Write a sequence for this structure.
């Protein structure tokens, strides 16, 4: 009896959450196969979905997911941007394989593709947007679970969960409920305990809003206490640096350690190698001065002495 009350209270809390997330709001059009899930129609033409049947279909889908031994054989897919964050979180907590974004044609049928996969179960966000994977799953005999709005086509959908699949809060709430039911049936979460994962993690976040939120959370620069850098605050007489530093301020005496180190270095005279000419003379102050170049006497024409032999004679 207590278990029945707990289940009833949990179902009531789930339906209240779905009401807050606008899961019950449909569209102005209704497919003939979705008429069984419609509660009533508002004056503005919007169809209202029966959330009691939505909760029952979520339970049925959770039982089908738990029946598959390897969670990696389950593919959860969403081409709609509002559902991509939700399926990634759902796959993180249940162990399924997510495909976010555009579906590559031939993923379930073309064995030559590198992304070829043969799942045992396919979970979709919108049958109209994800029409390509539904068609390929029908060719491969893959059972399909999909969130269906009042105007969604039900062809090749094995388990249709009636819900609003166009709102970001609605999609996040549905995947959060489905993930929690799966973990409860697996025994990961006790039946009477609340799941510590918040439903906000499954909601779609606008990149611009996320960027602004991150900028607000940036840690401010540390304050080192000095806010005024004027001359009076720093204890200076004027704002100008002294222009010229006299030689007396540099200190005239050489430290004793430096003088001792200079005295310890022996003086070595480097001699020129043998066979070379030295063009430098060491002066008294220690600097080498270049020697003047050697002077060369001008050439003089030398007349040879007469030999006494004249060829003309």
């Amino acid at each position: 009896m207590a278990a029945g009350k707990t289940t009833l209270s949990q179902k009531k809390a789930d339906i209240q959450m779905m009401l807050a997330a606008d899961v019950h709001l449909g569209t102005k059009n209704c497919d003939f196969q979705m008429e069984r899930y419609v509660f009533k129609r508002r004056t503005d033409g919007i169809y209202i979905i029966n959330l009691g049947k939505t909760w029952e279909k979520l339970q049925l889908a959770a039982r089908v997911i738990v029946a598959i031994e390897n969670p990696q054989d389950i593919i959860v897919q969403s081409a709609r941007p509002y559902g991509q964050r939700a399926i990634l979180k759902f796959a993180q907590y249940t162990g399924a394989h997510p495909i976010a974004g555009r579906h590559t044609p031939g993923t379930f049928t073309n064995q030559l593709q590198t992304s070829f996969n043969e799942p045992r179960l396919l979970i979709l966000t919108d049958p109209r947007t994800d029409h390509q994977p539904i068609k390929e799953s029908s060719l491969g005999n893959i059972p399909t679970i999909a969130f269906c709005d009042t105007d969604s086509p039900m062809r090749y959908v094995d388990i249709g969960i009636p819900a609003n699949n166009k709102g970001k809060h609605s999609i996040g709430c549905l995947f959060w409920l489905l993930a929690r039911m799966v973990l409860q049936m697996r025994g990961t979460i006790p039946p009477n305990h609340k799941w510590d994962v918040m439903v906000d993690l499954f909601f779609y976040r606008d990149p611009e809003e996320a960027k602004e939120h991150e900028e607000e959370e940036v840690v401010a620069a540390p304050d080192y206490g000095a806010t005024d850098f004027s001359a009076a605050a720093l204890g200076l007489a004027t704002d100008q640096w002294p222009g010229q530093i006299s030689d007396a301020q540099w200190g005239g005496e050489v430290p004793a350690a430096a003088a001792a180190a200079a005295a310890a270095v022996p003086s070595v005279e480097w001699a020129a190698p043998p066979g070379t000419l030295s063009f430098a003379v060491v002066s008294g102050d220690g600097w080498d001065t270049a020697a003047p170049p050697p002077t060369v006497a001008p050439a003089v024409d030398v007349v040879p002495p007469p030999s006494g032999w004249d060829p003309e004679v």
